[in-house]
Structures are given as C-alpha cells and as structure tokens.
Amino acid sequence: MRAKTWWLLLQPHSSILMIFVISSSYPVTAKPIAPALYVFGDSLFDSGNNNLLPTLARANYLPYGVDFFEGPTGRFSNGRTVADFIAEYLGLPYAPPYFSIRRRRSVKGINYASGSCGILPETGTILRLYEIGARKVIVFEIGPVGCIPSITRKHKHQGQCVEEFNKLVTYFNDLLPTMLKNLTSTLPGSTFIHGRAHWIGYDAVTKPQNYGLVDSVNPCCKTWFNGTSGCIPFSSPCHNIKQHYFWDAFHLTEPVYSVIATHCFNGTDVCSPMNIKQLATI
C-alpha cells in the first residue's frame, strides 16, 4: 500500500459500528485528487457490510435508502453518508464494503465500518494502519450522543439534550487533538486531521435554523418503542426529510451528513489543522 493512499478514519458516534457500499455507476469527477479512500467507523458510515453478517442490525429495507439512487443498500439513512460525500469530492467511487469484495478485484478504497462491532484501542489501531502504509488520516470526534432520540426519550433532562451523556464523550474528544498532533510529529510523513464532529453536530441540533433544518428532535422515519429504535420496515417516512436532523433514533439524514462532509472538505471550522481539500495538495 503506497504512502499516498488516503485513509478516512471515522470515530464512532455511539457504541454502534457499521459500513457502506460503492457504486461505479454514480458520477464521479474525471480526475480523482486522491488515489483511494479507506473508511473505518460505525453505523453512521455503514453501506452494506452488515448485510453480509449474521446480525439483526441491518438497513437493507425501505425506508432506508429511500433517497439513494440504488435504494436500500445497508446505509442507515435516507441517502448518502459523510464518507459517500467525501468520496464524491475526491473524485472517487464509493468505497465498497469489505465483505463484498472479491479476490483480485481492483478497488480505490474499502469500507470496513460495521454496526455493533465495538470500540477499538484507537492509538494502537492507527499505528498499525501507519505500518501498512496509511499516511493521511482524518479522525472524527465522538458526536453528541446525549442529543439522539434513543437517549433523550429514555432519560429525564432539561433542555434539548441529556448533557450528562455529552459530558462523558468530552473526556475522549478533549484529548483527541493532542493525540493526533503527537502522532503527526512522531510518525514521519504522516498527517492527521481532527474532525470536530461533536461541535458541528451539537450546533446543528441546538441551532437547526442555521442549517436549513426545522426538526432536530424527532426521528423522520417511524420507529418502535416511542422513537427509540431503527425504522419500522417498509413504513412511510416524514414528508419533509430535508428539514429533519434525525433519520431514526440513532442516525442522521443525508442533508446533515452533507453539511458535515462539506465543512470538513472545504471549510475551516470542522477539520483542522487543514481541511481535506488542502490535505490533497500535500
């Protein structure tokens, strides 16, 4: 694996982890600005790996994928994920789920994300990736888990979120920038980018109007257990999907993923010390 290979390391938004699918038929730019994209993460980035695993945590049925050009593929959203948008911006096809790849198949990335796979020792995992060739790595924070419906509807709280849960993840998030700076300085030729997923996620939840959203409290799709589960199979989602923050009790809608990816790729407020577009030039 060459040093120029891109790795998009996506930190879990919750304790659930999963993956996503590629489609060469989706339009990409003629000349990619990166040779490949590898994705690690949870169900926020799943695109089909769990379809091939013995698990009940799947999203291969409607209304999941209702706005995706291939329909339900295993993505836990109505459409594309953050990783999908970043692949498009890089001019790459969507990284295929690891379990869908056949031997000797030429790919421009792989998605290893998988729901309910647990939490990994991050530093050791990153060092292992470096050893096998990873040089450009984007690591996102843990998102505002205290704001997701599966938490807010089960626990008493004042305000929009259960801040006790958000405070717990700050112990990790606060130490992440220093860890990434240390890795960049100690691993020759490497560049580690810090993605402020918690900040932009919380900002969009508490100030939805700034992001073109109306509802940042309720799931868009119909769920079991008072809005604390995944989507009920083949149920009809809300009519104003583009104005909703949450798709189900755990995951976000395509418009929110688009905001996160766009800010990280082109902006200066989410990813630092540079954005992904700048990272492509070094």
UniProtKB/TrEMBL annotation:
GO cellular component entries: extracellular region
Matching PANTHER family: GDSL ESTERASE_LIPASE 7-LIKE (PTHR45650:SF14), GDSL-LIKE LIPASE/ACYLHYDROLASE-RELATED (PTHR45650)
Descriptive protein name: GDSL esterase/lipase
UniProt superkingdom: Eukaryota
Pfam families for the chain: Lipase_GDSL (PF00657)
Family note: Belongs to the 'GDSL' lipolytic enzyme family.
Organismal lineage: Eukaryota, Viridiplantae, Streptophyta, Embryophyta, Tracheophyta
Any one Gene Ontology BP term: lipid catabolic process
One function term, GO molecular function aspect: hydrolase activity, acting on ester bonds
Keyword terms, alphabetized: Hydrolase, Lipid degradation, Lipid metabolism, Secreted, Signal
InterPro entries in the cross-refs: GDSL (IPR001087), GDSL_esterase/lipase (IPR051238), SGNH_hydro_sf (IPR036514)
Compartment(s) where it occurs, according to its Swiss-Prot or TrEMBL record: Secreted
Principal location: secreted
Claim: Lipid metabolism is one of the keywords in the record: yes
Keyword Signal attached: yes
